[in-house]
Amino acid sequence: MSERKSLALTCLLLMLTPLAAIASPPIIEGERFHPEPGQHAMVVTSHTLASRVGRDILRDGGNAVDAAVAIGFALAVVQPRSGNIGGGGFMVISDEKSDQVTSIDYRETAPAGAFETMFQDDEGNVIEEASRFSANASGVPGTVSGMAMALERYGSMSLDRVMAPAIRLAHDGFAIPQRFADGLNGSRERLEKQEGTRRLFYKADGSNWRAGEVFRQPELAATLTRIAQNGPREFYEGETADHLIETLQAHGGIMTRADLKDYRAIERAPVHGTYRDYDIYAMAPPSSGGVHIVQILNMLENDDLTRMGHGSAASMHLMSEAMRRAYADRSKYLGDPAFFDVPVEALTSKDYARELRAQISLEKATPSEAIGPGNITPYESNETTHYSVADDSGLAVANTYTLNFSYGSGIAVDKAGFLLNNEMDDFSAKPGVPNAFGLIGGEANAVEPGKRMLSSMTPTIVKRDGRNFLITGSPGGSRIITTTLGVISNVIDHGMNIQSAVSAPRFHDQWLPDEIRIEDGFSPDTVRLLESMGHNVTQQSAMGASQSILINDDGFQGGADPRRETSSALGL
Ligand code: GLY
Questions:
Q1: Count of other CB atoms within 10 angstroms of residue 153
Q2: Share above pLDDT 90 across residues of the chain, in percent, rounded to a whole number
Q3: S-S: 297 plus which of 97, 227, 275, 543, CB 3.0-4.6 Å?
């Protein structure tokens, strides 16, 4: 059965089946359905082995942050297309006991030698290859610093304890899932161009790895062991830093040892908003995710989405109109707050949302050109990975991190066994010209030395009456924000259980191109109604992979996204 057909069937089954009635999981690789009542902790990730690592840490007395950090390192081993130590991301942490929600920004930064036109030729044309697949495509990685900061400030275990499972997986190896083999085989043309990368990810005779074979990564095991023993500065100032800079400079990169040494993760207040009776906490700039989740929810909250119904033309029209207005603002107002004064308060204010909502007709689509200019053809990538963890002490973690594209720039650090990001493509290589996700940026997101590139990653924690309620987020490039929005609305507006909320068909509107992009699973009647309102509707491949947790009176429920066959929810 094709991936799309199997997804549609899985979604249909999940929509029709009450969670408590699901007895035997129909999918073999992931561990997706854990509806037993009364569970008091939950881990949901895109990989069964990473979920087991997190669950075991919780079982051994670790808290949700310990588990989240252990999962971050484990995914770097078992899912190298997006799990990483050579990239960056964002972690939102909620502590019910102290009623505090905080976040760790470990986004990559541009090296000191970066400059605004570095990805343009002499005529000012953007050179895509340079921002995506060259040594200069990489920002200074933040993952090791971010994970270490989260652990030191909010964890309870030592770094070597939480890294031990990842080191074991790298050293002893693991049985390759089909998705892992398919990913490497599908990216072969790009990855084998780099000698170091070919050596790491293909067999000595050059052939592909097959599902079920054991995959070992001794160089990565040695790198992780050095970090576990010497601490995070090993990555930024030790032997690992030497290997990283030697590799990049051998490929003509501008990153220096000083860039690595100067890198620091930043703890930030998350963006806060309210939606109906709920508090929304999501990532602040340099992610656009938190601002736009709150902005869109503000535009929606005075309409009765429950009555309109999930997947109806009425609700999809209204949500799309709200989405496209937010994405138009994204292109102008969002960037690294250390370099640009992002008007977070104004963009997330209820007054501004009322103004925007007043422009929306419930009968007719607003052409995107009436909202803002532009003409683009987006390249799509579904990579990045999100995971959620919640424990019984009231700690919850939403973490999204990435190399940007699948396998990042495709350049692996020689002698250290890990891939580097191509996050520099998330800058506006030239203001007004779209990046790989079709997103247009302005001066706010122009390349500058030491700056963090704008992101869409949206790790989010929703609270109700001071209690953690929903922990969510997703990969999916520009579609991350709308995927996360959909899960929130499915739970709050449509009363879905978390598995249904995560599995339900998705749609996305990012202002430009002027279209509503839909997955399989919407009724043709709905599509016709949307078209009659003036929308362009295109059906494309699955979007995102939202690994989410819902906590209510029935206990902790995990929703593992069926769009990834290795997705896994494990409760305790
Ligand atoms: N690289 C995808 C994002 O940060 O939004």
A1: 12
A2: 86
A3: 275
Q: How far apart are CA 377 and CA 551, in angstroms?
A: 40
Strand boundaries in 238-294, DSSP class E: 266-268, 271-275, 278-282
Active site residue 384: yes
What domain range includes position 230?
Answer: 26-85+112-267+392-445
Give per-residue pLDDT as tens, 314-357.
999 999 999 999 999 998 899 999 999 999 999 999 999 999 99
Amino acid at 423: E
Residue at 304 is within a domain = yes
- How many Å apart are CA 106 and CA 232, to the nearest integer? 13
Mean pLDDT of the chain: 91
Query: What pLDDT band is residue 28 in, cutting at 50, 70 and 90?
Result: very low
Residue 21 lies in a domain: no
Amino acid at 104: I
- Determine whether the shortest distance from the Cβ of 456 to ligand 1 is under 6 A: yes
Ligand 1 centroid – CA 290 distance (Å)? 13
> pLDDT tens-digit profile of 200-218?
999 999 999 999 999 999 9
CA 564 / ligand 1 centre spacing (Å): 19
The response to whether 224 counts as a known ligand-binding position is: no
Q: What is the pTM of this model?
A: 0.93
Query: pLDDT at position 433, please?
Result: 79
The average pLDDT across 527-534 equals 98
Query: How far, in Å, CA of 401 to CA of 51, rounded?
Result: 16
Alpha-carbon gap, residue 349 to 345, rounded angstroms: 6
Q: Are 271 and 291 in contact (CB under 8 A)?
A: yes
Q: Is the pLDDT of residue 228 over 80?
A: yes
Ligand 1 centroid, distance to 455 Cα (angstroms): 4
Are residue 311 and residue 259 in the same domain, yes or no? Answer: no
Closest CA to 512 of 333, 315, 377: 377
Ligand 1 nearest atom to the CA of residue 289, by list position: 5
Q: Total domain count for the chain?
A: 2
Looking at the domain assignment, is residue 303 inside a domain?
Answer: yes
User: CA 331, CA 157: separation in Å to the nearest integer?
Assistant: 41
Residue 121 burial by Cβ neighbours in a 10 Å radius (0-12, 13-18, 19+):
exposed
Q: Are residues 412 and 466 in the same domain?
A: no
One-letter amino acid for residue 461 of the chain: I
Instruction: Give the C-alpha separation, 76 to 418, whole Å.
Output: 8
User: Which residue type does 119 have?
Assistant: F
455 among annotated binding-site residues: yes
pLDDT digits (tens, 9 = 90+) for 159-199: 999 999 999 999 999 999 999 999 999 999 999 999 999 99
Residue 92 lies in a domain: no
Q: Does 240 share its domain with 377? A: no
Regarding whether 283 and 203 lie in a shared domain, the answer is no
Residues 472, 490 within the same domain? yes
pLDDT band (50, 70, 90) for residue 434: confident
pLDDT band at 258 (very low <50, low <70, confident <90, very high): very high
CA–CA distances in Å: residue 544 to residues 25, 414, 506: 21, 31, 9
Alpha carbons 205 and 219: distance in angstroms, whole number: 19
